[in-house]
Design a protein that fits this description.
15% strand; Beta-Lactamase; 3 domains; Alpha-Beta Plaits; 530 residues; disordered N terminus; alpha+beta; rod-shaped
């Protein structure tokens, strides 16, 4: 089924077919007149033929004008015209010599035109209608006097009529079968194009790999009734499931032989029935799956992951070339979109990451703190903040050189990264300073978290120099804080820790005060060098 925004040009196509059919009707009518005028044979009734042709063309013209002006009833009008076609061409055959007339081939051409331009159902109905008219017309004609109709010996006419009727039905059935097959193929191709167009439109506005993968699963379900599918991407020696529909809740998959084959294959891999080869493989996500299609998601010679979709029993055991091509195009577009989204994520992380330590940089810290404080103010929960400074870091750079200083910063940053939990944010605040945002951390736990960090740093030595850390801590009371005030509180505590001899943790009691507070960074300028 096409999703919102898909273009289905059905009415325009039907109108064009009707115009072509009207042209063919006129051509066949002119041909019928030409046969009546130039065919030399017994039983040709030229005047009645001309009158019938004029009436037929008038009917066709009036019908054309009616549905074009009113824009209603076009299906009914052309259904009636199909009935008029049968009457006219049977009359033409009877007026130009009966079964000996070349006009009998006009009946066949009319059936073929109706079948191909309207529908195979219309062609079959017209054939049955003409067959009935031929039988009834013959019985009526043979009872009329010769001046009106001419038929040769009755026995031969019976045989010729039967042979022609059988040929007419055979042509109609063959044409209808071919038209039905082509119509189904065209509709299926149109559906494939609509699904691909809709998915491509969605992928243009998606910027997260998991959301891109989910869009592919949704397209398969809506366009092809695929009820169970998943998309998994490489994570080391396993595959991480990033999107799934109708499968068992699993987060990772072991790369079993089926998945390994799919990741290497250039085209789709078809599996009739999944076995339990690996307890952590594909069968744990799709138990008892039948007719499974696997496609590697390739982008620029790189395998992003794999698409797995169960076609099920109702879709048959095989996979036609059209379905294979359609799934391949969907997978290719998704792979490119996932590659682009992954690259954008990497760029975003690089923009928010300190190159030396791998922690969040100052810009990312400021945004994260604002978000956490906004959430805390709405939910009435606290936010803890630690600001730490490596003591006497200038001496490390002066005595050991900047490479050793960089190594110290990396090691301290690694300790902060290891201590993160859940939504904690560890950042390099600037120079030798680090910051730690602790959402939901009450005032009573700040000292515990800070002391653990301080003690772990104390265990570090570089070139015989001990490394210590001074930490200032502050916690926000519910619904009363902004970023600047919380940072100022933690900064004041750091100033006090430096002033008290370094290598210690001080928790600021700013919430017990009232009125404006001094500029803590200005207070601390005197000890920034150490």
């Amino acid at each position: 089924m096409p999703r919102s925004g898909a273009v289905v040009p059905r009415e325009t196509s039907f109108t064009e077919r009707l115009v072509k059919l009207q042209v063919i009707r006129v051509i066949l009518a002119v041909t019928a007149v030409a046969i009546g005028l130039f065919y030399v044979g017994p039983g040709v009734q030229r005047v009645p033929l001309l009158m019938a042709t004029a009436a037929y063309l008038t009917t066709v013209g009036c019908a054309e004008a009616f549905w074009r002006r009113t824009s209603i009833g076009r299906y009914t009008v052309h259904g009636l015209l199909v009935g008029a076609d049968g009457v006219f061409f049977v009359l033409v055959m009877a007026m130009t010599g009966g079964m000996d007339s070349p006009a009998r081939y006009l009946l066949i051409l009319n059936v073929v035109a109706i079948t191909l331009l309207l529908s195979y159902r219309s062609g079959v109905r017209l054939t049955l209608w003409q067959f009935l008219l031929l039988q009834v017309g013959y019985q009526v004609a043979v009872s009329l006097p010769p001046p009106w109709w001419h038929f040769p010996t009755a026995g031969r006419v019976d045989q010729d009529l039967l042979t022609f009727s059988v040929a007419l039905v055979a042509v109609a059935v063959l044409t209808a079968t071919t038209a039905a097959f082509n119509e189904r193929a065209l509709r299926a191709g149109q559906r494939d194009l609509e699904v691909l167009t809709s998915l491509s439109r969605d992928l243009e506005r998606l910027a997260e790999p998991a959301v891109v993968a989910e869009a592919l699963c949704a397209a398969l379900e809506e366009g092809y009734q695929i009820k169970r599918s998943l998309v998994a991407v490489r994570e080391g020696d396993r595959l991480a499931v990033v999107a799934a529909r109708g499968v068992e809740p699993v987060s990772t998959l072991h790369i079993d032989s089926i998945l390994a084959r799919a990741l290497k294959a250039e085209g789709p891999v078809l599996v009739r029935l999944l076995d339990d080869e690996s307890p952590e493989g594909l069968s744990c996500a799709l138990p008892d799956a039948r007719n499974v299609v696997l496609l590697a998601l390739r982008a620029e010679d790189s395998v992003q992951g794999v698409l797995v979709a169960e076609r099920g029993r109702s879709n048959g055991a095989g996979m036609g070339s059209r379905i294979a091509a359609a799934f391949g195009q969907l997978a290719a577009h998704t792979a490119l979109a996932m590659s682009r989204a992954t690259l954008l994520e990497k760029l975003a992380r690089m923009a928010d990451t300190d190159v030396l330590t791998g922690l969040a940089n100052r810009g990312a810290f400021d945004r994260s703190l604002a978000v956490e404080l906004d959430r805390a103010n709405r939910q009435g929960t606290p936010v803890g903040l630690l600001i730490a400074d490596i003591d006497r870091f200038k001496r490390v750079n002066d005595e050991q050189g900047h490479p050793v200083g960089d190594a110290v910063l990396r090691e301290v940053g690694a300790l902060f990264a290891e201590d993160r939990r859940g939504s904690d944010v560890a950042a390099r605040y600037g120079g030798e300073e680090f910051a730690f945002i602790l959402p939901g951390c009450p005032h009573s736990e700040l000292v515990t978290r800070a002391e653990r960090l301080r003690k772990r740093v104390n265990e570090m030595t570089f070139a015989g120099l001990p490394i210590t850390l001074s930490i200032g801590a502050a916690s926000s009371p519910p619904q009363s804080l902004n970023s600047d005030r919380l940072i100022a509180a933690a900064d004041r505590a750091l100033y006090l820790a430096k002033g008290a001899g370094r290598d210690r943790v001080v928790v600021d009691q700013w919430e017990a005060r009232s009125g404006p507070q001094p500029d803590a960074p200005a207070q601390r300028r005197g000890v920034d060098q150490g």
